[in-house]
Amino acid sequence: MSVAHTAQHATTVGPAVLVPLVAGWCYLAAVLRQREPDRPGWSHWRTAAFAAGCALLAVALLLPADGFAAHMWQHLLLGMLAPLGLVLGAPGTLLLRTVDRRVGRAALRALRHPVARTLAHPVTGLLLTAGGLWLLYLTPLYRATLASPVLHDLVNLHFLLSGLLFTWSIAGPEPYRHRASVPVRLVVLGAAVVAHASLAQLLYAGLLVDVPAPPQALRAGAAVMYYGGDAAEILLALALLASWRPQPRRAPAPAARQTLKGDPCST
């Protein structure tokens, strides 16, 4: 990474750090409103998870990207670890509890739109996150980010937003009628593991990638992607299993039970 790019990027970090600070302040203000007598309160675990996500996001923005391994750590924090904490904080549910009911109903109607349902599918999140990584490192896009701080920031924004979308589609705590089934989410998460591991191996071997870095730096960055990505995806799988609530079997109606009892084929 060039020295010029590092210096220019350092000047753009300041305003970006305000994002997790403002998000954390707004979340805390909404949590404090839940302490009013006519409100049901809010989980301390959700608050802690969101605070951890904001802290990881701030660390990612402040991390000096002065090498390929540091760059990879930044993407790991932005695209996987920070989104996990932010999503587990259930900010959507908290927002609906805070805003006016008419605004909440309008937001819920928007979530039922076909476009929103497509965006909320885990395959869409997979294409945006893993596909974005393959596009970044197997095309001249990464070289372009070294010469343009604005493009660098836009790529980071893409990984943050796509990471939030993918994490929510896999383990979002909010109930959503059109959410993919747990088996589908597990299969997509497995595909994400394969995609990240395959790209890390290509980076480690220096094959097909367009990254202007010495082999040692490539291997260090590939190790961060391989092992750090696996750890983040294990945490995401645990979050999915922890939030999974199997639907209980419905007992047959009394008339149906009577029919079955009198049917000789049922014995």
TrEMBL record:
Transmembrane regions: 12-32, 44-64, 76-99, 119-142, 154-172, 184-204, 224-244
Alphabetical keyword list: Cell membrane, Membrane, Transmembrane, Transmembrane helix
Topology of the protein relative to the lipid bilayer: Multi-pass membrane protein
Compartments, as annotated in UniProt: Cell membrane
A single cellular component GO annotation: plasma membrane
Pfam family, one: Caa3_CtaG
InterPro entries: Caa3_assmbl_CtaG-rel
The organism's place on the tree of life at top rank: Bacteria
Protein name: Cytochrome C oxidase assembly protein
Organism, as annotated: Micromonospora maris
